[in-house]
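Lab notebook, bench 4. Still working through the backlog of constructs that have no structural model yet. Next entry is a single chain of 96 residues. Request: give me the structure tokens for it.
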Amino acid sequence: MSATPPNAPTAYVPNNLVWAILATLFCCLPLGIVSIVYAAQVNGKLAAGDVAGAQESSNKAKQWAIWSVIAWVVLVVAYLIFLFALGGLGALQGNY
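Model written out:
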């Protein structure tokens, strides 16, 4: 195990915390929370010198935020299809 010199440059790994928070607030809460948990791990792993672990947590935070947005889009589309199906059914029955 090699020691890192105190003035050595550290690797930059984005923590994706902003995207995780936005996905949690505006999209899918459960998936967004998972994204926030992974995003919160990035800086701690970098401070410990675990660049590979920080990169993995960063990638997972981004992945869960994307899944949160996808889940929101799917739910909105399904809801719109449901509304149009109900509207079309009412028109077929003569109820406006």
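Notes after review: The helical segments are 17-26, 29-47, 51-93. The mean pLDDT is 86. Flag for follow-up if needed.
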